[in-house]
Structure formats: structure tokens, C-alpha cells
Design a protein that fits this description.
Layout lengths: L1 H20 L1 E7 H6 L1 H13 L2 E7 L1 H10 L4 E4 L2 H9 L3 E17 L12 H11 L3 E3 L5 H12 L12 E3 L4 H11 L2 E5 H6 L6 E5 L6 E9 L9 H11 L2 H8 L2 E2 L2 E2 L2 E2 L3
Parallel strand pairs: 1-2, 1-3, 5-6, 5-7
Antiparallel strand pairs: 3-9, 4-7, 4-8, 4-9, 4-12, 10-11
Amino acid sequence: MIRKTLLSLTVTALMAGQALADDIRMAVTTSFHNSGLAEILLPEIKADLDLDVHLVVVGTGQALRLGRAGDVDAILVHAKAAEEKFVAQGHGVARVPFMYNDFVLIGPSDDPAGIAAVDTAATALTAIRDAQSPFVSRGDDSGTHKKEIALWSGAGLDADSFETAWYRAVGAGMGAALNTASGMNAYIMSDRASWLKFANKGDLALLFSGDPVLFNQYSYIMVNPETHAHVKADLAAKLQDWLLTDRAKALIDGYMLNGEKLFTYNAE
């Protein structure tokens, strides 16, 4: 009887070990996490693949650093130039774009800088700088922060030279940065999904969008097993294959909040 009990415990332990093996760590952006889409996708990934995806929620810059160190099996990020460099340096297998949304400029509903009346993102940012209206920057090397800095530069402005009296770099994720902007009644750049999901809007409103330069592409990248032999490349590849299915497309395109679509699937 004792032998049978021990054998049963051994088999149970082995089965549990096998079940635990089907999991991966994926570094994802705070904007993706804040959007709520993960809550839609992860249960379906589990059901379809029997794969648990453990998210490490960080900015794009930190996600890329985790990938370079081999601390995750895959990354989901939104900074094209940095992603291409990551792959070119041998840290990632390939950059796989699969969905997008856009960036928007949020600000006080009375719009003291008058950005709702302009035609381009560059003009909007210049108006905020000229008015020296409070502006909250992520300041965290995230994809959103990288894009913001590029937009200031595209307007002929250097964010590093701005006075902190009106330009506040908070070094925080998208949700925390939006909360700070709400508390300060300040302007901020956000991805549309995070803004739509944001509950503490205060007196903030979406004031500017639609400029093609605000396009926001998300990509999946497997960490390269030739650089980091310990990563779970086979499981990361299973997830990549799933992201390229009609099932993933339907879930991503179908994700709505208050009647508004948060992401558009565009994998090729």
C-alpha cells in the first residue's frame, strides 16, 4: 500500500512538473497591459495552446534590456527603430508586427494652448511649449517616451532643454503618468488604448489626434536562442504562430471599450 501511494505521488509530481513546463515569460509595455487586451488574449492562449504567458510589465526600453539579458523568452513592444536594432544585434529572432493603434494628445478640457484647433502634431507640441502649459512626459525610455521625444525633435524642439517648471518627466508607466497629468491638469501624450481605459480622467480630454506621425505599431519578438540557449524558443514560437492566426485577429479587432476599437490587427 505504501509503495502504491509513493508511486502515485511520484506520478502526480511528474505530471505537475510537465504542466508547469508549458509557460513563458514575456516582457510587455505598460500601454499594452493598461489597455486590458491581455485580459482578453491570455485566457484564450491558455485554452488554445495550454500555455501560460507570464507578463513582465515594463517600458519598451526595459523590455529590450530584459531581452538582451535573456531574462524573458519574448517581448511585445512598440518602438520600431529600437526593435530593428535589437534584432540586428542578434538578440531577437525577427520583428513581427501584428497590431497597431495611435498616439493622442490629451490635455485640460479648456485647452489653454489651443491644440484642438491645429492640423499637425508638431504644431500642437509647439503651441504647448510656447504657452509653457504643464506637460507630463513618461520620461522612462518607453516606446511612448521615445515617440514623444521624436515628435518634439520633429517640431524642431529639444525636450532636454525644457524648463521643469512646465515640463515634468515622471519616470513612470502610462497609467501612472496619466494619473499625474490628471492631478496636475496637464497635457500628456498617450496611446489611444490606455486613454480609453483610463478611469481617472478628471478634467482631461482628448484634444488632438489623426496626424499620420502618431501611428503606433506593436510587434512581437522572440528572444534569440542562439544568443540565449536557455530561453523557451519552442514555446515562444508557438505563441508567435498563434498571434498570426485568424483567432488572434478576431480577438484583437473585436476588443472594444465604450463602443470604440482599441487596436487594429495588421499582421501579414
